[in-house]
Amino acid sequence: MQPNHATQADSQADSQADSQADSQADSAVVAAWLTDATDVTVLTGAGISTESGIPDFRGPQGLWTRDPAAQRLSSLPDYVAEPQLRRRAWQSRQQHPAWSAEPNAGHQALVTLERSGRLRGLLTQNIDGLHQRAGSAPTTVIELHGTIWEVECLGCGDRQPMTTALARVDDGEDDPACLRCGGILKSATVSFGQPLDPDVIRAAERAARECDLFLAVGTSLTVFPAAALPRVAVGNGARLVIVNAEPTSYDGIANAVLREPIGGVLPRLVAGLR
Ligand SMILES: NC(=O)c1ccc[n+]([C@@H]2O[C@H](COP(=O)([O-])OP(=O)(O)OC[C@H]3O[C@@H](n4cnc5c(N)ncnc54)[C@H](O)[C@@H]3O)[C@@H](O)[C@H]2O)c1
Ligand SMILES: [Zn+2]
């Protein structure tokens, strides 16, 4: 099968109508691949949640695109060293859109894929919990970068619900400390400078190795080790399909690249699955 790039059609771009027609054709081909697949591994990124009202980091409306300084909130050394930054982080957590966001058609489509019996693993870089809220089985979802729904003590590792910590912030503690050891609390997400859980990486790599189709959705594929997973899958003979509004550095090794809004294209891809 020849690689199939909606993006090539786009760059030839005679007219928008033509490129849309090409990209529809590509999604029909991908839908057929999904029907034939037995083990599909999906990697999602922030792009699948933008239609739920949670901005991504690097897209055109991304948090870091609009405010590059906000990246420091995700730096572990800075968070540990600067009480002022922690106070800002707690304020930002209080206002996080995840608390009121609802899963969208993209999340729902992955539930359909799972119910068709083809989903080998749902690997997500997202911390918003929307896959589980949509109905994906908690055992299928592998949260590579942790979750914002819990806090973890950097001293003793104790975990508590985020709601409990935010209630303390509401009550006037601007940088609540661990109630067990007095250590620094942080959302249970993986910050820059913080290692990923080795068991989680192993499980993700295994799901990438053991699939026949790898679907990367809404991720710029720039954060490692998550960004290495498509290559692991391709190296083991899987087809690679990328669904992302902007180009990624993996488009060249993908069998298909669909540059369409995720909430529109994913439901089309799974519509025929039984
Ligand atoms: N929802 C969340 O949980 C959330 C939100 C922001 C950041 N993060 C974290 O930030 C890191 C960011 O890396 P990343 O690769 O996941 O995201 P990213 O911001 O680097 O890339 C997101 C990509 O999605 C594309 N995109 C956005 N909305 C789209 C849509 N509706 N349809 C098609 N494409 C769309 C953008 O063009 C962009 O290339 C991750 O580690 C993640 O943990 C998570
Ligand atoms: Zn502690």
Strand order within the widest sheet? 1-10-9-8-2-3-4
How much of the sequence lies in strands comes to: 15-25%
Domain tally: 2
Remind me, CATH topology of the largest domain?
Rossmann fold
CATH superfamily of the largest domain: TPP-binding domain
Radius of gyration: 20 Å
Order of helices and strands: EHHEHHHHEHEEEHEHEHEEH
Helix/strand structural class: alpha/beta
Hetero groups: nicotinamide-adenine-dinucleotide, zinc ion
| Biggest pleated-sheet summary | 7 strands, parallel
Would you mind describing this structure in some detail?
The chain has 274 residues and is an alpha/beta fold. It folds into two domains: 34-54 and 103-145 and 195-274, TPP-binding domain (Rossmann fold, 3-Layer(aba) Sandwich); 56-100 and 147-189, SIR2/SIRT2 'Small Domain' (2-Layer Sandwich), CATH 3.30.1600. The chain is built from eleven helices and ten strands. The strands form two sheets. A seven-stranded parallel beta sheet has the order 1-10-9-8-2-3-4, with helices on both faces. It has a three-stranded antiparallel beta sheet with strand order 6-5-7. The chain is elongated and about 55 Å long. The relative contact order is 0.20. Mean pLDDT is 91; it is low at 1-23. Nicotinamide-adenine-dinucleotide binds next to loops.
